[in-house]
Automatic annotation (TrEMBL):
Domain Peptidase M20 dimerisation: 179-270
Gene3D superfamilies in UniProt: 3.30.70.360, Zn peptidases
Alphabetical list of Pfam families matching this protein: M20_dimer, Peptidase_M20
Name of the molecule in the record: N-acetyldiaminopimelate deacetylase
InterPro entries, per the entry: Amidohydrolase, Bact_exopeptidase_dim_dom, Peptidase_M20, Peptidase_M20_dimer
């Protein structure tokens, strides 16, 4: 299998959530070149579910990969860099999909006892494909619904060959956050006749910093990041509109509700103080990823015995993953797989080491053989 070629081809066609049309077509083309006797493929929106029949199945194991990219301008200057300006596989989903293809090929070549279903899931970065995909499988394709489910995420800071996970909570509860402020703009020379939304947004941004530092129990944990702040139109007009775009991360749904209540109180206060209208939109939200204890222990035990693999216990992280909607109802494990990149996830220069492409399909095939 020329996995490097496949990864580079996928890397060149990054598409955001539910727009993975070329990605889906490319994957289907690759899969159509495999022997078809053991496999059954169904499409779901821009995603795919591919079932591989085992020799003597007692269960169906699930493997999930995400497919979407991010709206980031790539700056790697690699010869195979993104052909879609402004979009990049900066979260490693091109690597994830290629590993899934490698695993699929291996399972066809050397079948195992159990059935395996590989889920190519769109829209992990947003607005979230896991929940509707899971629900569709349950209602329309129950014979594609796995009994247990696994997934990996690349870890730029870990060397290739290292895999890490933990029992229980791995990733945070998340909610996107979009806040629009509307007030009376006007001429830059007459500020007393306006309500400046740039000032109102700046003050809101600062006040939002007190939510985690002053309202969340220090023994709990939360993150409130505003990744984008925009206001106004040109240099000599006082802004009538401003927008804050961010994300909230907590360890439980309860603390997510508390954080949201504080954000709402701050927005009402900014409305009053600045004589403006504030509108909050929480966008999409993801459940925390909770690894099944027994499966996670089995996984780490297996990994620690494989030559060339270093298994580590990971800490929980404030990353979000809609894989949490799978582990909510299906026992599962997500793990980190090292890719030795100097630049991290969501960075325009992320450059994973492609050696992981050869290593992981073999490793997973061995794991599924013994699961
Ligand atoms: C693994 C990873 O980086 N996941 C994303 C998921 C984003 C969810 C949503 N769009 C949000 O921003 O809340 C992450 O940013 O953690």
């Amino acid at each position: 299998m020329e996995l490097v070629r496949i990864r580079r081809a996928l890397h060149q066609i990054p598409e955001i959530g539910f727009q993975e049309v070329k990605t889906q077509a490319y994957l289907m083309d690759i899969i159509s070149q495999f022997p078809q006797e053991r496999i059954e493929l169904v499409k779901w929106r821009t995603g795919l579910a591919v079932k591989v029949r085992g020799d003597n199945p007692t269960k169906m194991i699930g493997w999930r990969t995400d497919m979407d990219a991010l709206a980031i301008m790539e700056e790697t200057e690699l010869e195979f860099q993104s052909q879609h300006p402004g979009f990049m596989h900066a979260c490693g989903h091109d690597i994830h999909m290629t590993i899934a293809i490698g695993l699929l090929h291996k399972l066809i070549d050397e079948p195992i006892q159990d059935d395996v279903v590989i889920l190519f899931q769109p829209a992990e970065e947003g607005p979230g494909g896991a929940l509707p995909f899971r629900e569709w499988l349950k209602t329309d394709k129950p014979d594609f619904l796995p009994d247990c489910i696994y997934a990996l995420h690349i870890a730029p800071e870990l060397p290739v060959g290292t895999v890490g996970t933990r029992s229980g909570l791995l990733f945070a509860n998340t909610s996107e956050l979009f806040i629009d402020l509307h007030g009376k703009g006007g001429h830059a020379a007459f500020p007393h006749l306006t309500e400046d939304m740039a000032i109102a947004a700046a003050s809101m941004l600062m006040q939002l910093q007190t939510v985690v530092s002053r309202n969340v129990n220090p023994m709990d944990s939360a993150v409130l990041t505003i990744g984008k702040l925009s206001a106004g139109t040109v240099q000599n007009i006082i802004a009538e509109h401003a927008r804050l775009e961010g994300t909230i991360r907590t360890l439980t749904s309860e603390s997510m509700s508390q954080v949201k209540q504080r954000i709402e109180a701050i927005c009402r206060a900014v409305e009053q103080a600045n004589n403006c209208q504030v509108h909050i939109d929480y966008g999409s939200s993801y459940l925390e990823v909770k690894n099944d204890e027994t499966l996670a222990e089995n996984f780490l035990r297996y990994a620690s015995q494989v030559k060339g693999i270093q298994a580590i216990q990971s800490d929980a992280a404030m990353t979000g993953e809609d894989f949490g909607y799978f582990t909510e109802q299906i026992p599962g494990v997500m793990f980190w797989a090292g890719v030795s990149s100097a630049y991290g996830l969501h960075h325009s220069k992320l450059n994973p080491d492609e050696q992981v492409l050869e290593l992981m399909p073999d490793f997973l095939h061995g794991f599924f053989l013994k699961s």
